[in-house]
Amino acid sequence: MLDQLIQLDQQLFLGINQGLSNPIFDFVMPLLRNRFFWIPLYAFLIFIMLKKYGKHGAVILLFFVISFGIADFFSASIIKPTVARLRPCNDPIFQTSVRSLIPCGSGYSFPSTHAANHFALGVFLITVFYKRWKWILPLALLWAFSISFAQVYVGVHYPIDITTGAIIGSIIGYTVGTILQKIMPYKTWKAGN
Known about the structure:
The chain has helices spanning about 1-15, 25-30, 40-85, 115-130, 135-155, 160-185, 185-190. By secondary structure, the protein is mostly helical.
């Protein structure tokens, strides 16, 4: 059963990494997974939180960072070394089939820390702001999904890696967002006003 799942995962990987290859994706996908590409978005979020919500915004930002930190630590420092699955671009048997668009890196593949981190952040924002801004749901999920999809396209993660990372991150983002709402209820800081 596990062998069949790994084989299916590899086939899905090749379908994305090779089957969807085109010059536009070859340019865009490495950008999407680059942390520096998203600095303007993070700067904008920090600015909005502090300007619009003051001290409450600082608390929201703290919990935002906590979501990221928990997801990053749990996926990169606990699960990855325990599972120790090689990245597709580092697997000696599979790597000849991989289109590597970025340096492979030496870390393990399962789960995707990029996916865990960005789904934690996205779901946190949804949990905290959905009552006021319904549009945050598709926007935050599209943002997290695009970064996660790019991991497969550039050749550093299998689909199961990003799916698992997305599930882990979503649980963490929802949990931390819910804790924030218990500590600082929506009506206290008037989300979106």
